[in-house]
Structure formats: structure tokens, C-alpha cells
Amino acid sequence: MKRHNRLFDTILNGPSLLIVASVIIFPILFLMLLSVKGRYDPIFSLHVTVGNFTKLVASHLYWMVLQRSAVIAGIVTALTILMAYPVAYFIAFKGGSRKNLLILIVTLPFWTSYLLRVFAWKVLLGYNGVINSGLVLAHMPGAPFQALLYTPQAMTLTLTHAYAAFAILPLYVSLSAIDPKLVEAARDLGAGAVQTFRRVILPLSVPGILSAAVLVFIPTLGDYATPTLVGGTNSSMIGNLIQAQFGKANNWPYGAAMSICSTLLMVTAAGAAFAVLRLTSRRMRHVG
């Protein structure tokens, strides 16, 4: 009977496992194989080299762009959480019967293409865009401004808006899970609104904050469309550098090595965040 159930489970899970293998595992294995080949080596040749990785470790450009990407991703993550937390707090504690409607409104941007949202910001921030046109009508001195677009600030603003929902949803889930009795108990003991938030709500929402940070930081670090469209030449991120190796430079093995190293760094960052999240959850359960 158990053998029959295992066979049935295997048949049911087979298509999904095949999809996972073809979409995720096989491309990763292909990148790993490609990364240990020379630039002009056949892919399935027996020749193996670590030259791409040694070149990468010694590359000042790679580490400079990676550092810039990490700084920008960190700023975007912080700004996104600071913007998303009040929204999630309002929905969780003040939304009432309108919670589902508010969550639907938050997810509305996902109904449109990511590139369309980026192009929308390009229209807003452009030299002849909506913002500059409004400043001209308001007779703002110096308007229209060229500095609104193709700057790190424009890229940061666009990325913050693009990934806002990734932060709002986990924060909302974390805040909704807080027992209202704890808030009431704090107020009964004489704590004001600020003190209740600082000592009860904020500590209990730390898991949501960490989850939101991971969900925003990782995709932002690897983004290459937004820097290309609104960031300009001085705002290239690691995704642009990798894309250039597969495109203009036509050096696929070196690009594959970049991809693997960058992925390992992202996985390390995500693992550290989840480790902190697990320790925080254990501490909260211990205190409870």
C-alpha cells in the first residue's frame, strides 16, 4: 500500500518536478559548466579552467560595481520599508472591513508589466515629462531640469516604487498576526501610543521587516532594466555588467562566472537574513 502511494505521489509530482528542473536546475548547471570554459572553448569540451574566476577576483571594475549595487540596493530597501511600514500598519490596524480592498489596491501595480512601470517613471521624470512640465507652468526658476532623469536618485525612486508591494505584504502579515490583547494590555498599563509601538508592535513586527528586506534587497541587487532605462551611465549595477558580457563583450564564460559569484553573494545575504529571522522568532517564542 505504501509503495502504491509513493508511486501515485511520484506521478502527481512528476510534472512539477520536471518544470522546476528545466526552468531552474538545468540553467544553473549550464551556467556552472559555462563558467569553467575558456572564451572560445566548445561548451561540451573536456577543457576546464578557473581563469574566469581568478580574473573576476582581480577585477576592480566588478567589485566596484558590486559595491555600488549593494549600496543602492540597501538604500532602496531602507526607503521601501520606511514607506511600506505605515501603509501596512494602517491596513492591519485601521483597515477594518476594507482590508481586502486595500490589499487589492496595493497589488494593482503587479497587474501591469514591470517595464511599463519603469517607462511611466521615465515619462514623469523626463526633460519634457510631467514633473518638469508642471514646474515650468509654476514658473520654477531653472525649469525644466535635466537632473531629474538618468541619475542614481531617479533609479532609487523608481526601484522603491517598483518593489513597494514586496515590502507591504509581508509587513501586513506580520502586523496582522499581533494579538490585539497585547496592545490593549500595554495601554491598560499606562503606555502611550508611541511607547506601545516602540515596545510592543515594532519588536513583534521584526520578522516581517526582515522578510520584506530580503524580498526587496535580493531582486534590487540583480536588477538591470531600471538602471538601463532611468539610471544613466554612472548608475550601472551588477546586472548591467553581467548583461554586457553576454551581449556586447560576447564573453559568455566570464559572464557566467559573474552570475555565479553574484548569486552566491545574494544567497549568502539571504541566508544571513533568514538566520537572524529564525533567531528572532525563537527569542520571541521563548519570551512568550
Description:
The chain has helices spanning 2-35, 51-57, 60-94, 99-107, 114-125, 130-137, 152-162, 164-176, 180-188, 193-204, 206-221, 225-231, 238-246, 252-287. Helices cover 76% and strands 0% of the residues. The chain contains 14 helices and no strands. Helix 8 (164-176) packs antiparallel against helix 11 (206-221). The chain is mainly alpha-helical and 288 residues long. It is globular, with a radius of gyration of 24 Å.
Span of the ends, CA to CA: 43 Å
Indicate the radius of gyration in whole angstroms. 24 Å
Overall outline: globular
SSE sequence, one letter per element: HHHHHHHHHHHHHH
Which spans have pLDDT < 50 for at least 5 consecutive residues? Answer: none
- The helix-and-strand class reads mainly alpha
Q: Main sheet?
A: none
**Helix share bin:** over 70%
Number of helices: 14
Count of DSSP E strands? 0
Indicate the proportion of strand residues.
under 5%
* Overall pLDDT confidence: 84
Short description:
The chain has 288 residues and is mainly α.
Question: What's the arrangement of secondary structure elements?
Answer:
Blueprint: H1 2-35, H2 51-57, H3 60-94, H4 99-107, H5 114-125, H6 130-137, H7 152-162, H8 164-176, H9 180-188, H10 193-204, H11 206-221, H12 225-231, H13 238-246, H14 252-287
